[in-house]
Design a protein that fits this description.
Length: about 170
């Protein structure tokens, strides 16, 4: 009986500590200006790669170096990204994950969130919902809406439905 109480108390303590850690990681915070941020880009195939490269074209050199995650079988995206990087000088440390909807970005973002939960590194997650999503979020968007630091939509109807989101107009 005494061992069960000790085990229950230990489990309760661990649960409370985990809940406090989740609150610390997930609570909204003011943006802190930095000189540079390393960027992890999750590239999906086809139109997702084109959209993410258009987003990257408009980022300053403060978002460098850039690291890419590409499927082994996606040679076209690898070629597009290599061409993009050849045309743009690569310069500076990984604290931002930028993604725009491929399902492959969900486990990457969850991994980035775990880095913060474990106290290894705070990674800012920026999710840009695809331009083709006018009235409803994609499945990736529905999941990452709650986990991302910045959730950007490109249509005012989505901003109305999801007040936490940031509406910047059409950015792709």
């Amino acid at each position: 009986m005494g061992g069960t109480l000790i085990l229950a108390a230990a489990a309760g303590t661990v649960a409370v500590l985990l809940a406090v850690r989740l609150w610390v990681v997930l609570r909204p915070r003011a943006a802190v200006p930095r000189r540079s941020l390393s960027l992890l880009v999750v590239a999906g195939s086809g139109g997702h790669t084109t959209e993410i490269l258009r987003l990257l074209e408009n980022l300053s050199d403060a978002y460098s170096p850039r690291h890419y995650i590409i499927a082994d079988t996606d040679e076209m995206s690898a070629h597009k990204i290599n061409s993009f990087e050849v045309n743009r000088a690569d310069r500076n440390p990984s604290a931002v994950v930028l993604c725009n909807g491929p399902g492959t970005c969900v486990p990457i973002c969850i991994s980035a969130l775990l880095l913060g939960i474990l106290g290894i590194k705070k990674v800012i997650i920026v999710y840009v919902e695809s331009i083709c999503r006018v009235e409803h979020l994609s499945l990736s968007g529905k999941i990452l809406f709650h986990l991302s630091d910045y959730f950007i939509v490109q249509w005012p109807t989505l901003k109305e439905k999801y007040p936490k989101s940031v509406y910047l107009g059409r950015i792709v």
